[in-house]
């Protein structure tokens, strides 16, 4: 066993040296033979371990992300020979691969729309605008694909000690979301754009977006999916499938076939005996009442314990941000995009040492005005027990004027 560990350590060190050479500008062709020798017996999990170690040693996520293109080029030959996930219809990986095929088809259709843009001073006609709108709506389905990766696959990779690749991919997701937003804004003003302006939009907005979306499908299939296949247990795949429908639809539906073993899904929530109750100083609830009460609140609540791990969240009908049970026990820092982790960490550090009791933000998202507040939760002696996040859509509240003292006829009974 010690020999295996030592061999793996030497292999990773050698890989890290080569990656740093590539980072410093060495051409990929110059290191291919060395890669080929080192990678004998190495799976995608070790590639993930490499990226995680580089990030842990201080290399910025953005730098690792820039190296991904080189990784794909250098590892392609090796991975094509070695890694073929044994997927069956209906398995989450099988569905994600099929969705990638549909995403690539949607990218091709979007490119075809851009290729038909008029030139010179001409403008798009109604048919062309409708085609662009349809192509954009189709490609927007990548959001469901990315959310499933962020909230179903990434938590279990992190539990396996693979933290680098999820951070890099989440950054790519956010870049693509920004591209899609910019493309949507261009689409909204399409009727007024001249052919010259459309050519600039195609070159500066659409093509970078389509190239990044298409490239990410390859990264998933050559790196992410093999890593998941190597590291996920049956119980974890069962949990992925159980929570699959909690996210926006993909371009494809899972095919019938694969089902997890009956004993694969452990119960993740503690339940009291039916006749017992949750007793508090000011009253009591049955467990059923307490669950219903939390899910009736017109806001999202998440509680992070003193170890910075997600311990609880409400599951109301109208959730503002994505939450699913796979995040239970996950470090809250890993539940946020890399670009905002430093803000989360700053809030938690301040609360832990008593410098801060409340942090609040307000943003506009999808036409809603959201109020987001973080509260330090403390015990009777002032000890830090965790952080409570409360998110509320206050759009309608902000619009209130005057007074209402009677029940309005339009109110729900």
If you had to describe this structure to a student in words, what would you say it looks like?
It is a single chain. With 413 residues, the chain is of the alpha+beta class. The protein folds into three domains: 2-82; 92-246, Four Helix Bundle (Hemerythrin (Met), subunit A) (Up-down Bundle), CATH 1.20.120.520; 297-398, Beta-Lactamase (2-Layer Sandwich). The protein has 13 helices and seven strands. The strands form two sheets. It has a five-stranded antiparallel beta sheet. A hairpin with a 2-residue loop joins β5 and β6. α1 packs across α3 (44-56), α4 (61-82) packs across α9 (195-231) and α5 runs antiparallel to α6 (126-139). The longest helix is centred in the middle third of the chain and has 37 residues, at 195-231. 25% of the residues are buried.
List keywords for this structure.
disordered N terminus; Beta-Lactamase; single chain; 13 helices; 3 domains; Four Helix Bundle (Hemerythrin (Met), subunit A); globular; two-stranded antiparallel sheet; 413 residues; five-stranded antiparallel β-sheet; 11% strand
User: What is the overall pLDDT average?
Assistant: 83
Identify the CATH architecture of the largest domain.
Up-down Bundle
Rg calc: 25 Å
Distance between the termini: 68 Å
Low-confidence stretches: 1-5, 81-86, 267-271
Strand content: 5-15%
Percentage of residues in helical conformation: 40-55%
Number of helices: 13
Main sheet, how many strands, which sense, barrel?
A: 5 strands, antiparallel
Order of helices and strands: HHHHHHHHHHEEHEEHEEEH
CATH homologous superfamily designation of the largest domain: nmb1532 protein domain like
**Number of DSSP E strands:** 7
**Cross-sheet strand order for the largest sheet:** 4-3-7-6-5
CATH class assignment of the largest domain: Mainly Alpha
The 3D shape can be described as globular
CATH topology of the largest domain: Four Helix Bundle (Hemerythrin (Met), subunit A)
By helix and strand content, what is the structural category?
alpha+beta
- Total of domains: 3
């Amino acid at each position: 066993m010690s020999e295996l560990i030592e061999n793996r350590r030497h292999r990773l060190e050698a890989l890290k040296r080569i990656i740093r050479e590539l980072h410093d500008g060495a051409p990929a062709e110059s290191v291919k033979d060395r890669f080929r020798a080192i990678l004998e017996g190495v799976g995608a999990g070790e590639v993930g371990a490499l990226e995680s170690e580089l990030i842990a040693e201080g290399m910025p996520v953005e730098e690792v992300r820039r190296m991904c293109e080189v990784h794909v080029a250098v590892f392609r030959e090796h991975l094509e020979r070695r890694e073929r996930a044994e997927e069956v219809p209906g398995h989450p990986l099988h569905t994600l691969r099929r969705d990638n095929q549909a995403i690539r088809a949607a990218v091709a259709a979007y490119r075809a729309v851009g290729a038909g843009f008029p030139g010179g001073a001409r403008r798009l006609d109604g048919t062309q605008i409708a085609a662009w709108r349809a192509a954009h709506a189709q490609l927007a389905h990548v959001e469901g694909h990315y959310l499933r990766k962020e909230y179903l696959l990434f938590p279990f990779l992190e539990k396996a000690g693979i933290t680098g690749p999820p951070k890099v991919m989440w950054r790519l997701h956010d870049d693509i979301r920004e591209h899609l937003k910019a493309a949507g804004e261009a689409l909204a003003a399409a009727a007024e754009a001249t052919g010259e302006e459309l050519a600039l939009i195609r070159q500066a907005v659409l093509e970078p977006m389509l190239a990044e979306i298409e490239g990410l499908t390859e990264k998933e299939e050559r790196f992410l999916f093999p890593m998941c296949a190597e590291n996920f247990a049956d119980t974890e795949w069962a949990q992925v499938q159980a929570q699959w429908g909690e996210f926006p639809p993909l371009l494809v539906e899972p095919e019938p076939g694969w089902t997890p073993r009956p004993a694969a899904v452990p119960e993740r929530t503690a339940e009291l005996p039916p006749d017992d109750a949750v007793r508090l100083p000011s009253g009591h609830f049955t467990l059923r009442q307490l669950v219903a009460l939390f899910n009736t609140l017109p806001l999202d609540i998440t509680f992070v314990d003193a170890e910075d791990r997600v311990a609880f969240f409400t599951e109301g009908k109208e959730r503002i941000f994505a939450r699913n049970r796979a995040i239970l026990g996950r470090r809250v820092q890993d539940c946020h995009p890399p670009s905002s982790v430093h803000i989360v960490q700053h809030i938690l550090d301040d609360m832990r040492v008593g410098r801060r009791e409340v942090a609040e933000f307000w943003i506009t998202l999808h036409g809603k005005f959201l109020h987001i507040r973080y509260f330090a939760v403390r015990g009777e002696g002032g000890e830090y027990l965790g952080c409570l996040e409360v998110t509320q859509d206050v759009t309608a509240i902000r619009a209130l004027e005057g007074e209402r003292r009677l029940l309005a006829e339009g109110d729900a009974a």
